[in-house]
Amino acid sequence: MIEISRPKAVAPVEGHIDCVIIGAGPAGMSAGLNLVRARRTVLLIDSNRPRHSATLKSHGFLTRDGVSPLELRKTGRAEFESYPMASFQQALVTSVSVSDAAGTPAEELRGRPEYRVQASAIRGGGSVDVTASAVLIASGLSETLPALPSVRAYYGSSLHSCVECDGFEKSDEPLALIGESDDLAERALLISQWSSDLIVFTNGVGTISESDEAALAARGIRVEHRPIADVVGDRSGLTGVQLVDGEVIPRTGGFIRPLWETKLEYASSLEIPETADGWIEADADGRTAVAGIYAAGDVVPPGPHQLIVAAGEGARAAAVINRYLIGSL
Fold first, then answer.
1. Average pLDDT over residues 28-41
2. Which of 1, 17, 174, 186 is spaced 20 to 30 Å from 259 by Cα?
3. From the candidate CATH numbers 3.50.50.60, 3.40.50.300, 3.40.718.10, 2.60.40.1930, the one assigned to the domain spanning 145-258
4. Nearest CA among 133, 94, 162, 184 for reference residue 322
């Protein structure tokens, strides 16, 4: 009889941690690395659902230009886990709440709140139920692409969302900007830095004022208001944008303007202030209005960043968290 080996169950994580970091993207990894180097115990929790998993290469990260985002995450995790104070758990955070700190000597709390962080196990990971003196939210964003049947087939290769990250690779191509938001004119002007052949597709939803449309036209940028049926292409990549009336407008690449959203239901009891656009309100060092709760990366204004910017924010937040843990802040 053949025995089928099964993966061993991962033990749950319990106890007290100096800092729990939610999200193992560049912001979370950078913060974690700097904190363990400060000899802080750090638990990094990640659901392994990176927003840019479809992207083949990331750009603008000094010494790592052109690296796969997945490879960057893999390398970052290995560097983080090489320190004895580091621990990593693949899990889905379900709750961050103020702990009653039962059994913790009052003098250890120094009059500051302590947090209970709970996470459910997902494939390859274990559950989490810990207390922490500080929590860094670096969980990134959830994004919704325009509802086009084939958009995912070209997202990350022919179509991208980060103009600064992928604009250079699209230089001088016939490009599309597809979105349904009210900031398309601003994005179009930015994209025109790399290509003079650009068409903005609003899908009949996106808003561009008459004055903005005139300004775009003066730069040779056309605005197409007709609804889109789909994006089309072949094995070489995107070849065009098909409108509902059947016309196919040739394009070889371009940019999508997704709708972004923070997913913070797990921390709703903390009532962390958010901006009008839904980002977490935090100062330049990542402090929120809730003592001991910090935020870095895409969850803070102005929204989605380059990887290197997120990593820098994580490092800065780590320095402030370390001082908070000392009691000097």
1. 97
2. 174
3. 3.50.50.60
4. 133
